[in-house]
């Protein structure tokens, strides 16, 4: 059964679902609870041809109900790449030993 996510959540260890994302339930034990508690809603059309026409994220290939949801997913991928780049720069940043941060690191034994 194809459903659309009504909020962000982790479906299983392999799939982090975003709002508006269309995916197929994998017959897990708690799939009924996802429907009951309105984490997902069943799509009106279960036709694979119709589902194939839905907007697809260019980065991860996820299907979405609307274009703006697909665009949001793409922006999150871009910001995630920028965040990783910033973290790498931060990891290679050298703290001056005479600065207050350098003094704290020296006192901490780092």
Q: What is the radius of gyration?
A: 21 Å
Percent in helix: 40-55%
Largest sheet: spatial strand order: 5-1-4-6
Major sheet size, sense and barrel closure: 4 strands, antiparallel
Mean pLDDT: 85
Assembly type: single chain
Kindly name the structural category: alpha+beta
How many helical elements? Answer: 4
Strand proportion, as a percent range, falls in 15-25%
Explain the layout of strands and helices.
Layout lengths: L1 E4 L3 E4 L2 E3 L3 E4 L6 H6 L3 E3 L5 H5 L10 E2 L2 H25 L8 H9 L2
Antiparallel strand pairs: 1-4, 1-5, 2-3, 4-6
Features:
41% helix, four-stranded antiparallel sheet, single chain, 6 strands
Explain how this protein is built.
By secondary structure, the chain is an alpha+beta fold. It has 4 helices and 6 strands, in the order ββββαβαβαα. It has helices at residues 31-36, 48-52, 67-91, 100-108; strands at residues 2-5, 9-12, 15-17, 21-24, 40-42, 63-64. The chain starts with a strand and ends with a helix. The mean pLDDT is 85.
Quick recap:
By secondary structure, the chain is of the alpha+beta class. The chain is built from four helices and six strands; from the N terminus they run E-E-E-E-H-E-H-E-H-H. Strands 5-1-4-6 form a four-stranded antiparallel β-sheet. A two-stranded antiparallel sheet has the order 2-3.
